[in-house]
Amino acid sequence: xxxxxxxxxxxxxxxxxxxxxxxxxxxxxxxxxxxxxxxxxxxxxxxxxxxxxxxxxxxxxxxxxxxxxxxxxxxxxxxxxxxxxxxxxxxxxxxxxxxxxxxxxxxxxxxxxxxxxxxxxxxxxxxxxxxxxxxxxxxxxxxxxxxxxxxxxxxxxxxxxxxxxxxxxxxxxxxxxxxxxxxxxxxxxxxxxxxxxxxxxxxxxxxxxxxxxxxxxxxxxxxxxxxxxxxxxxxxxxxxxxxxxxxxxxxxxxxxxxxxxxxxxxxxxxxxxxxxxxxxxxxxxxxxxxxxxxxxxxxxxxxxxxxxxxxxxxxxxxxxxxxxxxxxxxxxxxxxxxxxxxxxxxxxxxxxxxxxxxxxxxxxxxxxxxxxxxxxxxxxxxxxxxxxxxxxxxx
Length: 395
Prior knowledge:
nine-stranded mixed beta sheet, SAM-dependent_MTases_sf, seven-stranded mixed beta sheet, Rossmann fold, Putative methyltransferase
């Protein structure tokens, strides 16, 4: 086991703090100011800690925290998404079968009386235990070993099992199907049910919902979690014996708000309503776009869709919406004369939805500079005409 005690020395911690904004390649070329200590590990601490500043402020701001490799920091949950997860579930006992750097376990410790943190990397397990001591968390037990063996050894009932399967496979590289991840959750579900009736699984944002449902059973809910309009996590809530349609819950977490939207998968009560562009335009956030609940958006918000495949919505009256909101200034046909008059050699923000040309092609073709206050949507209307919506952004 590697000895990390030297990282707690005041002079080493002071050096790490003083160099958080330096490039590692530059630091690596200089002479080791602590010749008797592990220079590579000190450099790793600087690089990993600098990457945690915005993502893991609790760890970044605490004293004498030890960081694992920068890859572990990059792969771990952010504090914002871990906090969101911790509000979804609660109880007396939870076991985190893929503990990693322990960010999720830290937040679960606020909702559960006891948390078991399992980690098959002995060095990482020791680091996490050290950090929990520094963070004064007393209800998390860190155990080194393989999760299935730990479950068998404990042989206890838990309120919840949490799993974040590794999305890297020795032979296949980065993978996205659940059966190619470690542990193989689909094949182990019945085994897990011996120890808990409820399981929360975190998967890659790129996993297709339909593909996930084919691999899993008893899915009670699917949570799509976006941070600042970028989907970060899919969470699969499994309840033993549940056989009904799952509810899809989307959230877009931003600095000052949480945009939430939900619907039952495959249970839309009515067809979408279509119409020509009106006064206001609505673009769903990334979490809703990932959900595929496009008809449900129009139905719940009482909006008209511009086209079945454009996924843009419109209304005469402005509403509070889960996504971007625009006021439509003008609607022009996508024709040479109109483009020359309104957009050629101008500055504009461009979005292309259900349109035969990409943003790059449009920008190059009409010499449109990026930026400014004008927002344009190149799209197709309900009559299959190619149109351009000229807009002011409201939200």
